Structures are given as structure tokens and as C-alpha cells.
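Entry 14. Structure prediction run on the chain below.
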Amino acid sequence: MQKRLLSVWAILVFLLVLVSLTGCSQKTLSPPDVVPVSPQYIIGAGDGLQVFVWRNPEVSVSVTVRPDGKISTPLVEDLTAAGKTPSQLARDIERKLADYLKDPLVTIMMTGFVGPYSQQIRVVGEAAQPQVLAYRDHMSVLDVMIAVGGLTEFAAGNKARIVREVNGRRQQFGVRLDDLIRDGDISANVPVLPGDILIIPESWL
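Output returned:
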């Protein structure tokens, strides 16, 4: 009798462990809850720049990076700006101006932020205002939702997902937007990274 009871208990314990393991495998994956290392800002097409040349106001100018990623300033034509940091671009302009000015000193100040496509955040689906956003340091999914005006009434917020490239492969992570926005559950707020795509599906109910 005791052996039979032990066998029954062993089977029950095995079934409980199996159920718990099965439940773990079905959990919605969430983005890692860590603050990403802030990257250096990279200039992109559409960015506004203030090119300041010390003691040479005649060649100092405000420009917008063209769709081809280049800018033109006095004495410097068709210089590639996209893909560079402001400091890198400043050094490139200095080298160009050195043909005309003695020891030019250039400072680049950002006046409008768009950034390169690879660092933009894209929001599609049932957001109030789906759009492309420039990534900002320590940006979270709550910041993204504020920028796009929240969810529509038809959104299935807790079925939203982030598509992210990790080590050259695209992965998907579940996010709980309903819990975050409608219930105020701050634990559902997670960091976003440059290049993330936030997809918000429509509810069928």
C-alpha cells in the first residue's frame, strides 16, 4: 500500500514539474529590462546643422542635410554629413576650409534631430499617430507611446511586439501596452533601442 502511494505521489510530482516547465516555455518574451548604452549621435538626412567657423562669420551657416546625406556650405560643396558624428563632420569641414583659411576651427551644433534610418524608431499599426521617431538617449516604450499619441480604441495593446535586430538576426519581443497605458503598470515600461519597430495589432473583439 505504501509503495502504491509513493508511486502515485511520484507521478503527481512529475506531472506538476511538467506543467510548470510547459508554462515557462509559453511565456511572452519581453525586452531585457536594462538601460541601453547611449550611442554617439550619428547625423542623418533631414537633420538641421549650425556650422560655426570661429572668427569667420561669412562662412558660418545653418544647413539641413539633404536626402542624399550631403551638405553644402560656403567654400565647401557636396560634403557627406550623414553617417558621421558632429565632431567628425567638423574635422572634415576644417580640412576642406584649410585650403582657403588659416587654421580654421569649426563647431557643429545640432538644431534638428532626425538621425539615420538605422537608429530611428518606427511605430506601425493601431497607434493614434503612427510615425517614425528619432531615437533619444534612455528612450522607453512609454516615451514612444506619448510621442505617437497613445493607442486607438481598436488596439490590442498587450499583443504588441517590438521587432529588433540582435546579432544580425531579427527577433520579436512582446510588450504590454494596455497594462502600461490604460492600467498604469510601470513594470510594463521597457527600454527601446535604435532601429526598433513597434507593431501594434488590431483587436478582433
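The mean pLDDT is 85.
Filed with the rest of this week's runs.
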